[in-house]
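User: C-alpha cells for this complex, please. No commentary.
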Amino acid sequence: MKREHFNSTSGQGRPVPPPCDEDGFLLDSTSWNRRIARDMADLDGIGPLGPDHWAVIHYLREHHQSYASVPPMSQVCRTQHLDRHAVQRLFGGCREAWRIAGLPNPGEEAKAYMI
Amino acid sequence: MAKADFEVPELQEYTEVPKYVEGTMAHSSPYVAKPDHQTPLGFPGALVPDWEEKTLEAMGDLLGKYRSFQVYLDSCVKCGACTDKCHYYLGTSDPKNMPVARQDLLRKVYRRYFTFAGKFFPKLVGAVDLTREVLDEWYSYFHQCSQCRRCSVFCPYGIDTAEISMAAREILDRIGYGQKYCNEIIAKVHKIGNNLGLPGPAIQNILDGLEEDVLDDTGVAVKFPLDVKGVDILLVTPSADFFAEPHIDGLIGYAKVFHECGVSWTVSTKASEAGNFGMFIGSYENMRRVSMRIREAAIELGVKRIVFGECGHAWRVAYAFLNTLAGPFDFLDPNYPVPQHILEFTWDAIQQGKLNLDKSANDDKVLTFHDSCNVARATRMGDKPGGQFEIPRNVIKAVCNNYVDMEADTIKERTFCCGGGGGLLTDDLMELRVKGAIPRINALNNVVQEHGVTHMAAICAICKSQFTKVIPYYGFEMDQIVSVHQLVSNAILLTGQGEQDDDDGEDDE
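Assistant:
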C-alpha cells in the first residue's frame, strides 16, 4: 500500500513502477500506461486486472482529464453498469483505484474521503 | 477486517478507565505543513529561526485577545474530574492525553514567562523553559485533541481544552510549524472554494449525475441546482456530500426534501464548502476568510435564506460565529433563522405534513444515532434547549420504525467523539483515530448485541468518514454508517413517484 513497496521491488524481470510520492501516487501521471497499472495492482495484491477493473480505470482517467477531480464512486459504478460496491470489491477502495489509474495525489481531504 | 500495524484495542462491555502508561503516543505526530500549505494562510513557510521569541510573542498576543484563554490557563485546580473523560486517553492510556495534562503542556510555559511565581520560582509552580522538546511535544499532543469539548462538560470551572488546543495550533502556525492536513485543505478552500478541491464543472457534473440517479430511481425530476440566482435558499454543505459515501446519499435526501416542500434552492461554487478548518487551527483570520465566501455567495445569488447541510464543526461556526465573522446578514429574510440547519428545515416540513413518508422503507435497519460533538456541545437546533439532541432523533424516528439510543453516558452532551474530528482525519494519525474511537464503538457494540442495532446514523461529514474507515478494524462493515438524510431519502415518497410516467410529459432520456 505504501510507497516503499514500489521501491523495494526490483528484479524478477518486472519493471519497477516510476517514482511515486509519499502516499504512493505517481509523481508524473503522464508516464502511466497499462503495464504500470498491472504492476501496481500486482504489488497491491489485486489482480489480474479484468474488464471491470479497466472500465473503472479508464473512467477515472477520463474524468480526471475533463474535471481535474475525483468523481463519486457511485457515479463511476452507475455509469459503468457495476454494482454500487464494485470499486471497493475490485480494488479494495477508491483510493487504490485512483492510484492504479496513475492519477496524481488528489490532496488531503480527498484522500480522507476516498475510502 | 481492516489490518493495522498497531495494536487495536479489544471491545469491552463498558469502556474501562485504563491505568496510565507513559509515552504510549509520544510517537504520534502528523505530517508538518509544507511552505505551499502555510503561506496562502498568511503563516511562515517553515519554522522561523527566532521561534522561541515568536512563540512567546504569539502566546502573549492570544492572552491579550482571548480573555478565556488566560482564565483557562489560570484556573485549573487539578481536581482530576477531566482525567478519564477524553476518548484519546481511554483509547491510548497515555497520561498526556488526559485533558489536564494536555493543558499543562501549554500552561507550564505560560507560567514560566507570564506569571510572577513562574518567573521567579519556576520549580514551585511547575513552570518550564520553552525548548524545542517542549515545542515538539505541543505539536504531537495538540494534534491528539479533537477539540470535542467532552472534558469541559465535566470540568467544575468549565475549562475548555479545545480552546487551549486551538490556541496552541495558532501559535505553532504563526512560527511556521503547521499541520499539513488542515493547512493544505484551508489553502484549497481559499483557492478553489472547497476542501476537496472540486472545481465548478466537476460539481456540476456530479449534480447532473445525481439528477439522473434520482430520476431513474423514482421517475421524478428532482433538481440539483448550482449557482442559480434569485432562488430562496443557498445550501452550504460539506464538499464531502458531493463525493463520499454515505454523505452523497444525504445530499440526495436534502434535494428531495426541498423538492417536496416546493422551495427553490441552489448550491454555490464559491461557497461549496460548509466546513471551516480555520476553527481547528484557531485562526480567526482564516475562519473569517472561509466564512466570507458564504456571505459573498449569498449576496451574489440573491438568496433569502442560508441552510447548512450535515456537518458538525461547520454548524458550530455557522451557529455560533457566522454573524460576527461575516455578518450582518440583514439582506436575508428575517422570518427565518440565519443560518438554518437542514434538520431544522426537514423537521419543520415533517411537522407541517409536507413530506409523504413511508417508514417501512427503512425496515431493514435498526438505527442508533451518534451525536456529533460540535453539534451536541457547541450549538443548538430549533428554539428549545436540547433541540440539537431531539430534532435529529425526531427526524430519524419519523422515517424509521426501529430506533434505539446508546448508553446515556455516551450520548447527547456526554457524547464521545468519533475519534477523527478537529483536523485529525488523516491517515498519518490512523493509530490515534482507531484507538480514540473505542469508547464510541464499545457503546455501539452494546446496542448491536443487546438490541440488534444494524446501523449508526450521523450528521457530520467527519464522523461519517471516520467511522466508515475505522469500524472495520472492530469487525463492523463500513456501510453500517448512514447519513440521517439518507434515511429521509429512503422514506420519502415523492409526489408523482410510482405513478405511470408515460402520460405525464416526463423528460426524454
